Inverse folding.
């Protein structure tokens, strides 16, 4: 019996490895850069695509599980396998694979934006340029600087836009009848309402700090490449303000939420009156989920906040490039973009140019359920800041910890 079990297992393993080797040989035989799209779709059929993405939002997870995965299976017989990981996880994963000399990555598609894009480019860990291979690329609004540049870095085909959002303040209208209209007014609010405000020590919190720093410096002052001198000048002003306000923060500023989910929970529990979101429409879907109280409202203070796009990349040594391309092309399709634009689904802003869409899809996007408590996109566009160069975010993470959090 033991011998029979061993031979059965060995046979299964042999067949599995043979199948994997066959897929790799098939991919090597394809000239991805020159192959026709129908041939790439054919090569992708029946394969598994490995994707790594942040999984901290139930509605985004539901969109991927209940809509994207079944669609890919029905249209292309592709199995999408998703693992959890974001910025530092993806960079760490890429670095580990590089250091161990892996010839084929365990991940194909990754969900990223500027800071991670920058770090992966430093590691030469991204496949591309590839966006010109995607049929739906012709529908992308590349005329928008918020899409064509990621943290001031030209995308140059190395990542494909997936969605576009803007940082919004979310507050409880029953407790805050007149929310601070500007960053200057925010300082007054914090001092007059001690214990009701804090900043999460993570990506959204850093986006808030960058927006605040741009408000101090002026919209164009920090544009372009990273300037250590400008960073030092304006970050010092920011740290002085925050340390002056820190005693008025939640828990007297002795501790800060480590994740946005923690801040959302503090807000939902009534411990603080404000939370934030990088997605200006999130307030509506959080109310629909019953996570936020119905009195929640969202807005963008003067002079503005950061608007940015998020992207999909392909690992340089991806095992299934044809499958990755087909998955990304589907995620950029009018159908998939329309599905996630609804506040009841995700509320993510589209990266497509409406003028390039067929009339049928233009009409569908126009008829998406109106935002309820989220700000109208057209009314906040003039308050949109472009992202800063990635070095600003990297420095802010370290300095917020050492110059604010750890200061007594």
């Amino acid at each position: 019996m033991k011998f029979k079990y061993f031979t059965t297992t060995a046979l299964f393993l042999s067949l599995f490895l043979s199948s994997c080797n066959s897929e790799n040989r098939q991919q090597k035989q394809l000239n991805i850069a020159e192959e026709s799209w129908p041939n790439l779709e054919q090569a992708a059929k029946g394969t598994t695509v490995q994707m790594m993405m942040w999984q901290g939002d139930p509605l985004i997870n539901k969109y991927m599980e209940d809509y994207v995965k079944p669609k890919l299976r029905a249209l292309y017989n592709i199995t999408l396998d998703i693992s959890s990981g974001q910025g530092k996880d993806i960079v760490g994963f890429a670095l580990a694979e590089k250091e161990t000399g892996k010839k084929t990555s365990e991940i194909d598609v990754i969900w990223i934006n500027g800071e991670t894009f920058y770090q992966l480019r430093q590691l030469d860990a991204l496949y591309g340029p590839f966006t010109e291979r995607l049929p739906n690329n012709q529908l992308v609004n590349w005329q928008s600087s918020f899409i064509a540049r990621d943290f001031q870095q030209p995308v140059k085909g190395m990542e494909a836009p997936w969605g576009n959002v803007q940082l919004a303040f979310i507050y409880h209208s029953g407790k805050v009848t007149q929310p601070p209209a500007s960053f200057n007014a925010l300082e007054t609010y914090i001092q007059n309402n001690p214990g009701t405000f804090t900043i999460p020590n993570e990506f959204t919190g850093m986006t808030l700090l960058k927006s605040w720093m741009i408000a101090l410096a002026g919209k164009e002052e920090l544009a372009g490449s990273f300037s250590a001198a400008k960073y030092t000048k304006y970050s010092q002003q920011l740290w002085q303000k925050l340390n002056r306000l820190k005693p008025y923060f939640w828990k007297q500023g002795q501790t800060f939420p480590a994740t946005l989910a923690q801040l959302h929970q503090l807000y939902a529990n009534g411990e603080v009156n404000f939370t934030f979101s990088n997605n200006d429409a999130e307030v509506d879907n959080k109310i629909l989920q019953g996570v936020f109280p119905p009195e929640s409202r969202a807005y963008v203070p003067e002079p503005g906040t950061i608007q940015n796009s998020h992207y999909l990349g392909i690992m340089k040594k991806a095992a299934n490039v044809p499958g990755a391309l087909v998955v990304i092309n589907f995620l950029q399709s009018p159908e998939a973009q329309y599905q996630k634009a609804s506040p009841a689904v995700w509320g993510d802003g589209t990266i497509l140019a409406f003028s390039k869409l067929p009339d049928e899809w233009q009409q569908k996007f126009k008829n998406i359920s109106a935002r309820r408590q989220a700000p109208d996109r057209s009314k906040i566009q003039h308050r949109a800041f472009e992202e800063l160069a990635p070095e600003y975010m990297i420095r802010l993470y370290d300095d917020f910890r050492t110059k604010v959090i750890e200061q007594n």
Q: What stands out?
A: Confidence is low (pLDDT under 50) at residues 1-23. Residues 268 and 290 are 9 Å apart (CA to CA).
